[in-house]
Amino acid sequence: MPAPSAPAPRPTARETAISLRGVSIGYDRPIIEGIDLDILKGEILFIGGGSGCGKTTLLSCLTALRKPLAGSITIDGVDIVDSDDDAIRSVRRRFGVMYQLGALFGGKTLLENVRLPLEEFTDLPDDVMDDVARAKLGLVGLGAHALKQPSEISGGMQKRAAIARALALDPPIIFLDEPSAGLDPVTSADLDAMIEALNRMLGTTFVIISHELASIFAIGQRFAMLDGARRKLVALGAPAELRDHSDDEWVRRFLNRVPTQES
Amino acid sequence: MPRRSKGADAPIAVSEGAGGVLIAPEGAIDAESIGRVRETLERKLPSRLAGAVTLDFSKVTHLDASGVSVAVFLFRLAKGAGVGFEITGADKDRRLLIDLALRGQEPQEPAKAPGFVREVGAASIAIRDGVVDLVRFIGEIALVCVHLVRYPQHLRVGDTIAAMARHGSDAIAVVGLLGFLIGAIIAFQTFDPMAKYGAKLQVADVVAVSVVRELGPLITAIILAGRSGSAFAAEIGTMKVTQELDALRTFGIDPVRFLVIPRLIATTVVTPMLAIWASILGVAGGYMILGAEGFTLAQYTDEVRQALTVGGFVQGLVKAAVFAILVASIGCLSGLRTGQGPGAVGLSTTRAVVAGIVAIILADSVLGAFFYTLGI
Ligand SMILES: Nc1ncnc2c1ncn2[C@@H]1O[C@H](COP(=O)(O)OP(=O)(O)O)[C@@H](O)[C@H]1O
Ligand SMILES: [Mg+2]
Q1: Do B174 and B252 have their domain in common?
Q2: Are residues B206 and B342 part of one domain?
Q3: I need a surface site. Which of A11, A106, B62, B308 has the fewest CB within 10 A?
Q4: Domain stop point among B80, B102, B124
């Protein structure tokens, strides 16, 4: 019954997938400054922090959509801040992103949304692309909704369809911005199980922005916490460890869900 | 199935037994190899599935989410043929992914394209429904107007004035320019034929009558449909898509009173004024040609004054007001009836402009006949 396990893709001495050095992010003025962080190959890293503290902004810097105000970011050794467009384009092929609002292409069915990257970057026959797209939609629990339009499904379903689209090319790095917002607990747990299975089987690196404590403790290997008030990265470590033993009060309160008045 | 070859066969053992067909791929099934795997598999599969399909993963060394699609393909195939489907030799993680991926998958029936007659029928019904909807909507507007006569403080005065500026004064330049050019064009085109009958000065009559009664209001209304009808549909349609209309309703605020009435009143007030403006410039445009032919301004204005009647002037104003009501209500209605999705607002906008212009021309013919019968 047990199959010969896949060749362990996760490196033993863990290599760095994404490296941030002295990164400051923001718009006219910095929101978070001086981030030093190594995201390891094959890890599930959660990024948390109060709403509006800059998580989505950080994600757009990590995905090369905007430049940080200062510092350097490299993905698989390629500098994505100063490189030319060609280099950035080839790095982009190595990751999939689910944006906070889903950003599905309206007017296309879910199947067509997931197929789009396959059409652009592979030469698979039509019916194979359909089946690959169906499999990805099935993984996020939307197998029965492949032919619906984004406007015909709920917000939580749109987010999951966007995750399926991020998975379309089986990239080694996947960024998810608040994937479980709007999901019921069962669906959210299914999503966690899928993320964990992909991570174990293939060594896929997941960088997940989330406030969902249940997910963070269930599948998070490390947790990085941003603080908008102090404008910096205030904690990095195993979630349970930080919850019980962080010397930072705000981090403990966040991970223990303690309201402000009780501090 | 003819298909471009992708190099060497993928190693897949397909064996048919009494129980059904056993499929045992070897090596990697992933984004890289999926094309080759599928090609080999489809070639080796029996043409008719007689028994259950079993997919064995025990020799698969590497499986990713794209590779899982092989299971989806075989599952849908087996389901379509009415035979069983089974997975063996998958460890816990693979099992989990495959189980997730297979949930809810059904063989899909392709949607049948409707026939020609059916399409024509559906289109006719849609037009009829659209007209009924418009009439009902105008009734609804009338009811709100009755309410506003009783409670004038419920009128959104600020919004109405803002709409007058946006849809009236901002259109002065373009309406004036078109009016002037139309007047000049009419004079230019009719001058030679009229000159044949020695009626050069009577070109002024032609310009005055056609511009004041007909073309001034018509041009103004067509500009209105393009500038304002489309804007109404887009503004209200966007609010519909982003659920702002629902938010208004849950406050107990009627979107017709809140959004439609200010726009409707504003356009109904400003359009006749714009039409007068277009007519004045149209008459001026006519003089540009006649002046060049040597007629004095006094000759021209005398002739225009004789040609114009109060009835003709009133006819122009009434037309302009009716066109404004039609364009504004079609634009707003189109916005309120906006569907979902990113194309929806664009569709509503197009519909507002096209339906608006069609309605203007239809109403113009009806009103023309009406005034003729009245002898105005
Ligand atoms: N396009 C923008 N221009 C200026 N400020 C922005 C922009 N987008 C977001 N911000 C500000 O940056 C801060 C961080 O936003 P964001 O990264 O979206 O937070 P979150 O952590 O909730 O994802 C917020 O205070 C927000 O107001
Ligand atoms: Mg955010």
Answers
A1: yes
A2: yes
A3: A11
A4: B102
- List C-alpha distances in Å: A258 to A51, A255, B145: 16, 8, 55
The secondary element (H helix, E strand) that includes residue B174 is helix B172-196
Same domain, B79 and B204: no
- Closest by Cβ to A167, choosing from B65, B70, B88: B65
Ligand 2 is an ion; residues with CB less than 5 A from it:
A 56, 100
For residues B125 and B91, membership in a common domain is answered with no
Half-sphere exposure of A229 (CA within 13 A, CB side): 3
Q: What is the CATH number of the domain that holds B60?
A: 3.30.750.24
| Contact of B1 with B33, CB cutoff 8 Å | no
Judge whether B110 lies within some domain: no
Instruction: Please state the domain count of chain B.
Output: 2
The residues with which A72 forms a beta bridge, in sequence order, are: A21
Distance of CA B57 to the CA centre of its chain: 51
Closest CA to A170 of A120, A137, A138, A136: A136
Q: Are A138 and B72 in contact (CB under 8 A)?
A: yes
CB within 8 Å: A136 and B65: yes
* Residues of chain A contacting residue B30, judged by C-beta atoms under 8 Å apart: 170
Rounded Cα distance between A33 and A23, Å, is 6
DSSP-derived secondary structure for A166-228? HTTT--SEEEEESTTTT--HHHHHHHHHHHHHHHHHH--EEEEE---HHHHHHH-SEEEEEET
What is the mean pLDDT of each successive set of 10 residues along chain B, which is 376 residues long? 54 82 89 89 83 89 90 88 87 88 72 76 88 90 90 87 90 95 94 90 92 93 95 93 83 86 94 95 93 90 90 92 95 91 87 95 94 84
For residues B126 and B205, membership in a common domain is answered with yes
Quick check: A144 contacting B, CB < 8 Å?
A: yes
Count of beta carbons in the 10 Å neighbourhood of residue A81 = 15
Q: Directed axis angle between helix A126-139 and helix B69-81, to 10°? A: 100
Question: Looking at the structure, do residues B59 and B170 belong to the same domain, yes or no?
Answer: no
Count the Cβ atoms, other than its own, within 10 Å of residue B308. 19
Q: Tokens 């018509």 identify what position?
A: B218
Report the length, in residues, of chain A.
Answer: 263
Cα-Cα-Cα-Cα dihedral sign, residues A58, A161, A122, B57: positive
State both tokens at B174. 């373009």
Q: Do B97 and B212 belong to one domain?
A: no
What is the extent of the structural domain holding B146?
116-374
Query: Which of these, B30, B38, B45, lies nearest to B6 by C-alpha position?
Result: B38
- The rounded Å distance from CA A141 to ligand 2 centre is 24
What pLDDT was estimated at residue B112?
62
Same domain, B96 and B130: no
Domain boundary, last residue among B67, B102, B137: B102
